[in-house]
């Protein structure tokens, strides 16, 4: 999630656990602890693929944060002026403010290395978008009440309860969406195909499903307010002919470890050279994928891996008109909106007539 949300979550937890003892200090310390794991964003590994795949790594590990929380609790118990706070209370304060950060991140699409340094792909079960105002707002109101009145626990506790209720709603919504998707996938023989179901930007009422089908991938929009409207499946080329080449490269394999099968490949001309570009299909929205990586360049008849991979600037960014259409589609299933409206037409393989 975004930095503001993580700070608000840490502040709400801090106020809930120790607000009665520390007042505003519990909220402020909690906010600092809530943002601490994301300081790894300032680490530059000198390579675009390394930067994205190492983020949410060691600093988000439950093992590392549990150890850090325990150390801070022991130090606070020994040196903090508030002598009437038990070690167990300090431990709950530090541990919860720290570990809820990666646990919330794991509920987004990006993925989080919860079990670092153990092997395994990043953990991700997306039920909220990386920025969701309806999740963040109750937390901000709660901690604002605490900071304004000096009552450190009541407001944060209510804000935390409402935000948790919202997450519960999002989980239930995802279950409903997956049930609506099932007959569409069965109709196209995609029941066992890898698929990713996640909220569309900034809400949990409209959901996006990405389904991988060999050299193609499919996009489906499903809204909770769609009623009997049947979801439409749109098909795109995935550039799978370049996948063996990408997987023969060290950085290509690392990106595959990070994004799984949800990658699109293309030969794009950059700076006058044929360049192998891999796009993460999970992060963003068709037509607005922000994470594109240059992996190799063609020299003569052969491809040569780039010593330092590069982040390729996206072709376009969502504007107010796009966001307006997305908002209209959330509330009205009849509002005309298809993912192919925004994607490069060269990638669209088949589009239902209604689109």
TrEMBL record:
InterPro entries: Transcription_regulator (IPR053170), YdjM-like (IPR007404). GO terms for molecular function: hydrolase activity. The keyword Membrane applies. The chain crosses the membrane at residues 57-75, 87-104, 124-145, 157-177. Keywords: Hydrolase, Membrane, Transmembrane, Transmembrane helix. Pfam families: YdjM. This is Metal-dependent hydrolase.
């Amino acid at each position: 999630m975004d930095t503001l949300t993580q700070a608000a979550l840490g502040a709400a937890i801090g106020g809930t656990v120790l607000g009665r003892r520390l007042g505003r200090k519990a909220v402020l310390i909690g906010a600092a602890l809530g943002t601490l794991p994301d300081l790894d964003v300032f680490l530059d590994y000198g390579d675009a693929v390394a930067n994205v795949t190492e983020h949410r790594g060691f600093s988000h590990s439950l093992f590392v944060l549990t150890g850090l929380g325990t150390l801070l609790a022991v130090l606070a118990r020994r040196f903090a002026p508030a002598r009437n706070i038990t070690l167990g209370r300090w431990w709950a304060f530090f541990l919860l403010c720290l570990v809820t950060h990666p646990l919330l991140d794991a509920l987004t699409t990006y993925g989080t290395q919860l079990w670092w340094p153990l092997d395994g792909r990043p953990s991700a079960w997306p039920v909220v978008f990386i920025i969701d105002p309806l999740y963040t707002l109750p937390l901000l109101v709660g901690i604002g009440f605490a900071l304004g009145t000096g009552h450190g626990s009541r407001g944060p506790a209510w804000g935390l309860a409402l935000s948790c209720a919202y997450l519960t709603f999002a989980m239930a919504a995802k279950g409903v969406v997956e049930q609506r998707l099932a007959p569409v996938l069965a109709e196209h023989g995609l029941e066992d195909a890898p698929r990713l179901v996640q909220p569309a930007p900034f809400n949990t009422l409209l959901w996006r499903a990405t389904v991988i089908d060999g050299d193609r991938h499919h996009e489906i929009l499903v809204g909770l307010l769609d009623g009997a409207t049947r979801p439409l499946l749109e098909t795109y080329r995935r550039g799978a002919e370049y996948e063996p080449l990408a997987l023969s490269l060290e950085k290509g394999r690392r990106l595959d470890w990070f994004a799984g099968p949800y990658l699109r490949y293309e030969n794009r001309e950059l700076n006058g050279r044929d360049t192998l570009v891999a796009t993460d299909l999970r992060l963003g929205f068709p037509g607005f994928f922000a994470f594109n990586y240059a992996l190799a360049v063609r020299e003569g008849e052969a491809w040569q891996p780039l010593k330092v991979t590069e982040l390729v600037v996206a072709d376009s960014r969502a504007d107010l008109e796009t966001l307006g259409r997305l908002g209209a589609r959330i509330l009205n299933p009849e509002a005309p909106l298809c993912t192919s409206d925004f994607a490069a037409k060269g990638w669209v393989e088949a589009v239902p007539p209604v689109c």
